[in-house]
Amino acid sequence: MSAVPPADPARPTSSAASPDTVPGTSPGAAASGRRLLLVHAHPDDESITTGATMAKYAAEGAHVTLVTCTLGEEGEVIPAALAHLAPDRDDALGPHRIGELADAMRELGVTDHRFLGGPGRYRDSGMMGAPQNDRPGCFWQADVDEAAGLLAGIVREVRPQVLVTYDPDGGYGHPDHIQAHRVAMRAVEHAREPGPGGAAHHVERVYWNCVPRPVLEEGFAQLRAAAADGEVFPFPGFTGDTGFAAPDDVPGVVESLADVDVTVHAEEYTRAKAAAMAAHATQVSVRTGPGGTFFALSNGLGQPLSGIEYFRRADGARTGTGGGLTDLFAGVAA
Ligand SMILES: [Zn+2]
């Protein structure tokens, strides 16, 4: 089966009479009425943590909107031929990553993508503790209310029932991920009042992406088995000892499936997710072999790549199903 089903040509590509119509609306969005907004920190985060989910909902006719908060200017560059783009050389990684993200969105079938405040409005802040954290104009230095106001304008315009972002720690403590969380949560509050973008809008459900530790451990076991069977590791950029990352290197780890509210089974879109991740070639290496599909960041440490993605409710209203719900729109009025 094709990783990304072709769009249904019978569906109208515009519906001017519908109040739901927004720029970039994908075919079928009006028919489905489902609108999903994802708020991510850097180009590549969307594909790595929620790529299969985005591809699945887009293919099913939901209107999927991605808001990326920075251009990821401080990322480490994997391909040697592109090393000159690095911030301590040409400092040209941001514009290059705009192109990578556009390619990734094509792989996922997502047509509505925006940068918060426009491309380059907020710069990548670097890892926590880096001197770049203090640079004026970086996302970590942004006024949360101002940034949330920009995002609230998109929320009022797109009117998503469901919003996905990170937990309060940003999944793993990166300043831009923490800030993305703060801005997204604040924007949901702002959007309850009318303002730029349109009438007041209540986002019915906010989720934080996560991944249960037992699932990760299983994924890493598969990775090691593939290596034992002769698949080639490590990935480019590897300089360490083992060639494999560990569960604690993965953002958004929760201890068990009981901490999860919704499990999105999008295995059918694993190839689309892998292709989207590979489009972020300066940041991600992807390898598929008989033992599975795996990836690495610039440290070259292998990680499992899965088409099953996990989410927990931001409001803490546990469903008590241990991840048994399979739809982010479950219980949400369309
Ligand atoms: Zn990131």
Automatic annotation (TrEMBL):
It holds the Pfam family PIG-L. One of its GO terms (molecular function) is zinc ion binding. Its cofactor is Zn(2+). Gene3D superfamilies: LmbE-like (3.40.50.10320). Its EC number is 3.5.1.103. Keywords: Hydrolase, Metal-binding, Zinc. InterPro entries: GlcNAc_PI_deacetylase-related, LmbE-like_dom_sf, Mycothiol_biosynthesis_MshB. Binds 1 zinc ion per subunit. Residues 1-30 are annotated as: Disordered. PANTHER family: 1D-MYO-INOSITOL 2-ACETAMIDO-2-DEOXY-ALPHA-D-GLUCOPYRANOSIDE DEACETYLASE, N-ACETYLGLUCOSAMINYL-PHOSPHATIDYLINOSITOL DE-N-ACETYLASE-RELATED. Belongs to the MshB deacetylase family. Catalyzes the deacetylation of 1D-myo-inositol 2-acetamido-2-deoxy-alpha-D-glucopyranoside (GlcNAc-Ins) in the mycothiol biosynthesis pathway. NCBIfam families: mycothiol_MshB. This is 1D-myo-inositol 2-acetamido-2-deoxy-alpha-D-glucopyranoside deacetylase. It comes from Streptomyces cacaoi.
